[in-house]
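Narrative of accomplishments. A recurring question from our advisory board has been how the design workflow behaves on a single, concrete structure rather than in aggregate. To address it, we present the structure tokens for one chain from the evaluation set, followed by the sequence designed for it. No filtering or post-editing was applied between the two.
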């Protein structure tokens, strides 16, 4: 009777009665097991992986991620978010990839779960079962090749095992941490103000990589239970710089994934298939990053469907809600950057202003100095408008300007109508003239004779002996550059402003 039974689905064998017993594990049972306080991290990652890749149920994933907002300081939170990013990106590529490029899926990241670590399962309050799986370095040495067997053409379990080992011998999955290591070097010297979009291409196909039809909508990835509408992002996806950091990360990921597929694909796939897989994976990374940001914002209790987005949304939140949202998005940012996934455009500015409104100023500056927060133009404009132009507020403005790149700080100084701004700009202008950065000598023109220097600019500060410090200083400047190259109005305004004790107000 045991051999005549036909049971669909996973089964187990009852040795005592020699019967096959069908295993039925409902999704609700997995949800309840995931929410248990004593559930270890490995099992939670496996449950998340099952719902994303096998059931395509992102609504349940959103339900499982909801408690993370209250436990954002837990060290396990970034690992859970990384599993969602890796698994969700793979699921998106799997559903949108052409059938002829499916063999390349074995080279893409599948999960962050380490199948060779020991897993402990608590059966009851007194019994704990430990499961471990070991990996052999070269298991093929323990098998005979089919040509070495007595009956070479007979197929059995051992010949099939030999074929599987030979098939998967060179299939090494791509590691996102390799991209993260390279970005640690390139992002240090990355200057978005010095780049243009033409120097940071997304792909050979152009900008449609991110927004074109090759993307599958990850918000509707769940098909079994029907997907809910995901709330919009808490910020507007805009960037104030010409070349965004997001484009740089996408281009690096696209290049590294393409090279990995070409090296490990064994030459059986065409370059167009490699480009299709790499393009879809780079697009899926961005879409999964956006979706996870939406889910974590919703988990923090912030409803973005009926409120203003961006900086006005932060102003409307209560201080406790701001703190929860900041800690949640901080963990999200750490998980995304550790895997070298691109952040949504506008997220760095939103996180920086949220931190400014949430944490103390000293801690805020430490975040900026550690490159955790990025002070873009829009954030600095909002912060400088919020700080007063006297006393402690003025000192904080000057301190934040010193933390910015040179071109960005100069742009803000030109828009800041304050005596301190005049003095800084005038000092920089004079320093460039005297050091040869600006003026006739910087362009290779011969220096004019001393007796040909005009003194028309000295009339602004007349003196009896014409030997005042200002006269001497202007003489030095006119000896280095022509009058057309000197900004006398700026120098005079800064000199007059230096007599005001605005720092003591």
């Amino acid at each position: 009777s045991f051999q005549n039974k036909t049971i669909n689905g996973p089964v187990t064998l009852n040795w005592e009665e020699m019967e096959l017993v069908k295993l039925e594990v409902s999704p609700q049972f997995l949800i309840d097991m995931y929410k248990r306080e004593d559930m270890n991290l490995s099992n939670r990652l496996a449950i998340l992986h099952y719902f994303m890749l096998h059931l395509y149920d992102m609504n349940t994933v959103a339900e499982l991620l909801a408690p993370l907002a209250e436990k954002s300081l837990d060290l396990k939170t970034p690992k859970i978010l990384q599993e969602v990013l890796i698994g969700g990106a793979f699921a998106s590529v799997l559903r949108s990839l052409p059938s002829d490029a499916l063999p390349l899926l074995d080279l893409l990241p599948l999960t962050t779960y380490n199948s060779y670590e020991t897993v402990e399962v608590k059966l009851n309050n007194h019994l704990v079962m430990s499961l471990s799986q070991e990996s052999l370095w070269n298991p093929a040495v323990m098998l005979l090749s089919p040509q070495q067997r007595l009956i070479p053409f007979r197929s059995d379990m051992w010949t099939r095992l030999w074929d599987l080992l030979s098939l998967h011998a060179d299939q090494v999955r791509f590691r996102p941490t390799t991209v993260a290591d390279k970005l640690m070097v390139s992002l240090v010297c990355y200057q978005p103000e010095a780049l243009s979009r033409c120097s940071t291409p997304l792909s050979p196909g152009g900008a449609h990589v991110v927004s074109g039809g090759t993307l599958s909508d990850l918000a509707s990835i769940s098909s079994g239970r029907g997907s809910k509408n995901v709330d919009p992002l808490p910020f507007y996806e805009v960037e104030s710089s010409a070349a965004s950091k997001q484009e740089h990360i996408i281009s690096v990921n696209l290049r590294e994934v393409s090279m990995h597929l070409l090296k490990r694909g064994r030459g059986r796939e065409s370059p167009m298939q490699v480009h299709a897989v790499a393009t879809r994976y780079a697009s899926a990374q961005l879409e999964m990053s956006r979706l996870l940001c939406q889910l974590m914002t919703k988990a923090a209790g912030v409803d973005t469907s009926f409120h203003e987005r961006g900086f006005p949304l932060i102003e409307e939140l209560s201080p406790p809600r701001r703190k929860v949202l900041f800690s949640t998005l901080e963990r999200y940012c750490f998980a995304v950057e550790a895997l070298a996934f691109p952040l949504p455009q506008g997220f760095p500015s939103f996180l920086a202003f949220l931190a400014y409104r949430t944490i103390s100023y000293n801690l805020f500056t430490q975040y900026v100095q550690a490159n955790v927060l990025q002070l873009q133009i829009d954030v600095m404009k909002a912060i400088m408008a919020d700080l007063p132009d006297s006393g402690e507020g003025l000192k904080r403005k000057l301190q934040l300007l010193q933390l910015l790149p040179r071109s960005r700080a100069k742009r803000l100084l030109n828009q800041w109508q304050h005596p301190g701004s005049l003095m800084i700009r005038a000092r920089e202008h004079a320093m460039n003239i005297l050091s040869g950065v600006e003026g006739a000598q910087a362009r290779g023109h011969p220096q004019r004779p001393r007796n040909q220097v005009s003194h028309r600019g000295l009339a602004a500060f007349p003196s009896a002996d014409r030997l005042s410090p200002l006269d001497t200083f202007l003489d030095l400047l006119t000896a280095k550059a022509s009058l057309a190259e000197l900004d006398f109005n700026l120098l005079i305004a800064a000199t007059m402003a230096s007599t005001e004790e605005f720092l003591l107000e």
